[in-house]
Amino acid sequence: MLNRKGSLIVLSGPSGSGKGTVLGEFFEKYADENVFLSISATTRNPRPSDIDGVTYYFKTVDEFKNMIKNNELLEYASFCDNYYGTPKKAVEDKLNSGVDVILEIEIQGALKVMETTKDAVFVFICPPSVEELEKRLVGRNTETLDVIKKRIDTAKWELTNIEKYDYLIVNETVDDAASKLKEIIDAQRQSVKNNKEFIKTILNEVEL
Ligand code: 5GP
Question: What is the CA angle 56-57-63, rounded to 5?
Answer without folding.
Answer: 140
